[in-house]
Design goal:
The chain has 1 helix and 2 strands. It has one domain. By secondary structure, it is α+β, with helices and mostly antiparallel strands. A two-stranded parallel ribbon has the order 1-2. Helix 1 links the parallel strand 1 and strand 2. The protein starts with a strand and ends in a 15-residue tail after the last strand. It is elongated and about 35 Å long.
Length: 47
């Protein structure tokens, strides 16, 4: 799944911590940061 970086971190944390998903079973990408134009820091959810 892809979304705004802060949102994707919260979703990923919820899936891993509260729902006990295997990290290898989900792929998340934080593609942008709200209010930051041309943000080069993509959050690939690699713990």
């Amino acid at each position: 799944m892809g979304a705004e970086a802060a949102v994707i971190r919260r979703i990923r944390s919820h899936l891993l911590v509260e729902r006990s998903f295997d990290p290898a079973s989900i792929v998340t990408r934080g593609y942008w940061k709200q209010g930051v134009p041309n943000n080069p820091d993509h959050d690939f959810g690699e713990d």
